[in-house]
Amino acid sequence: MEKREGDNCTIDLNTAQSIKPRRNTGNLSNLNMDMQVTSTPEAAALFSLHQAHHFGEFECSSEQHCKQDLFPKWHLPMKIASVISFLMFIYTSLRDVIYPFITRKENAFYKIPILIINKVLPVVSITLLALVYLPGILAAGFQLYSGTKYKRFPQWLDRWMLSRKQFGLLSFFFATMHACYSLCYPMRRSYRYKLMNWAFQQIKQKKENAWIEHDVWRMEIYVSLGIVGLALLTLLAIASIPSVSHSLTWREFHYIQSKMGYLALLLCTVHALVFAWNKWVDVNQFIWYTPPSFMIAVFLPIVVLLCKCILLLPCFRRRIQKIRCGWEANTQTNQTSITSRL
Ligand code: HEM
């Protein structure tokens, strides 16, 4: 090992060969300054070596950066959200805009920016929320079927389970937009014109009171449920921020994400069911033989909630708890058969 003493720094040439490129350019520039003061040929060689390392690092890192995946965990949730949004937009536009245009020559295109969008948003939001809890149910079913927690889940289920946080955050995003769109309904000029027209028709019919008791209750209940549902989703979103989740114990985190999450899903589903009210039995809702959007919206959440209720039955719950504590169905049978033979 050859050591040379410079004016300001001691340079170890062998170790210099193994200097790894660092991302801290501040340190490197300090080193360069030190070396510029040193006038030995070795120092000059080391300086040019460093320069090469320096630029090499930038070339390499920019290449690596280009190769790096952008938001890898968001790919699946974003794709699913985009596909559902697109399909729902087409579906709702056909029912609410194209159908009146074709059958009655009625121009309802004004509905697209707010009313149609505000049918797409809640459907996507509640479906994504159901997709947060569906893999947990599938995983429980898988464990019940295989009788052990040591068997690996299929890869697609693993991937889905790992992106539940992103599904939940996207659901929250869509729900917030839906709340904003809903709350601006009365501000719209189309709404004011419709209100005036209703009032005028009422005067013509000599009706003094337009109050419909069950409609009033319907709206009070579903808006209130929507607000509470959104508040719970906000809590879930806050609890998923790393700094907040790290301050919680596993049990607290699990309690919030699981129990409160299911409660949010239940409230949002009831919100949609109460919104629909007696439209469930109204055949006029089936335009071109297609079901209304609220039926599509509540389908998956109801399936998830029903499956959860089934899994909460004592026979299934106890078995899942045992499996998750390490009990294995096959081993147990084997052990029982060995014991009985002895
Ligand atoms: C502040 C909170 C909320 C308010 C004010 C609100 C308000 C509304 C309103 C006014 C409608 C009727 C929309 C229409 O006339 O087309 C509606 C429908 C609906 N909302 Fe909400 N909502 C809220 C939160 C939520 C949340 C958190 C979810 C679920 C994630 C949700 C899911 C739904 C669904 C599925 C429908 C039925 C949409 C359809 O198919 O027509 N809402 N909500």
From TrEMBL:
Transmembrane portions of the chain: 80-102, 122-146, 167-188, 221-241, 262-281, 293-316
Membrane topology: Multi-pass membrane protein
Residues annotated as domain Ferric oxidoreductase: 123-256
Signal peptide feature range: none
Superkingdom in the source lineage: Eukaryota
Keyword line: Membrane, Transmembrane, Transmembrane helix
InterPro entries per the UniProt record, alphabetical: Fe3_Rdtase_TM_dom, STEAP_metalloreductase
Major subcellular site: membrane
Subcellular location: Membrane
GO CC terms in record: endosome; plasma membrane
Homology family: Belongs to the STEAP family.
Protein name: Ferric oxidoreductase domain-containing protein
